[in-house]
Specification:
Length: 279
């Protein structure tokens, strides 16, 4: 959801970017979620920052699905959040489904867990959708198999349905951490590196995902001289687009809304420190 991502960007903002406060508007309940598109190593860092921020600052329970074991926070994230409390980390539950079938079963089981869990998750995160989808065809992502597209639609629909169900449960229990949000990452084999985050060619899988995820967060690396000149290891442009951004931007006519800013920069320093800057 853009409220979680925007809170991440504002929390870890550049020290020279002092234009904003940390106020975040609640998302409309119809919004399903946000899709982070780009390099998987950077997108995973963004997802982990989102999980940590949601748990520590918003008190949310987070369900984090990934195929790659996470033993500890990466060094770069530890630099960003050095004083994270163990109680906050306990709010994040990591799950490691190996196949898309296991992922579907585990997401579906979140419906059942509300009978035994006092507080269901308010944020569902899925790391690297493309790795699960490529497993559904027994091959690589290239080729855009019809089964892969069908699986993408099935998985996305289940995520949206589960989030809607958990939102109802959270509302019934008068939870302050609702509604339930969904954030997933996807690395397309089609180059997204166009101005404004627009893809240079059509990715059928991404087209399907965009139908379900109302906000797209595109990561585009700046390979020019600006990063080196600023003493950075990497510089990334972050573009927010999609129906969710359009709806939020038009919610108050004639008023510029900072929480739906459409472009940011991610600055990665040689020591691993990550900062965000509003463009």
């Amino acid at each position: 959801m853009t409220d979680i991502l925007t809170l991440v960007f504002k929390t870890f903002k550049s020290q020279t970017d002092l234009k904003m406060d940390l106020t975040v508007s609640p998302p409309p309940p119809t919004t399903c979620g946000a899709l982070v598109v780009g390099d998987h190593s950077v997108s995973r860092s963004v997802l982990l920052l989102a999980a940590v921020t949601a748990a520590s600052q918003m008190g949310m329970r987070v369900m984090f699905f990934t195929q790659t074991q996470i033993q500890s926070l990466p060094a770069s994230l530890q630099k960003c959040v050095p004083s994270l409390s163990p109680e906050s980390l306990k709010k994040i539950k990591f799950s490691y489904p190996r196949t898309v079938e296991e992922l579907l079963l585990q997401i579906a089981s979140l419906h059942e867990s509300t009978n035994t869990s006092p507080t269901p998750p308010s944020l569902i995160i899925v790391d690297r959708l493309e790795s699960f989808l490529s497993d559904s065809t027994g091959g690589s992502h290239s080729g855009f198999h019809p089964g892969e597209q069908s699986c993408a639609a099935h998985l996305s629909a289940l995520l949206c349905d589960t989030a809607a169900f958990l939102t109802q449960v959270l509302e019934q229990r008068s939870s302050i951490s609702g509604p339930c949000r969904v954030i997933a990452s996807f690395q397309s084999e089609v180059d997204p590196g166009q101005a404004g985050g627009e893809p240079s060619a059509t990715d059928p899988i991404l087209d399907i995902l965009d139908r379900y995820f109302q906000v797209r967060c595109t990561l585009d690396q700046d390979r020019g001289y600006e990063a080196a000149a600023a003493g950075l290891q990497q510089l990334w442009h972050i573009y927010l687009s999609g129906r969710g951004i359009t709806e939020a931007s038009s919610a108050k006519d004639g008023e510029e809304r900072l929480d739906v800013a459409q472009e940011w920069q991610l600055l990665i320093f040689p020591d691993g420190l990550m900062e965000f800057k509003l463009v």
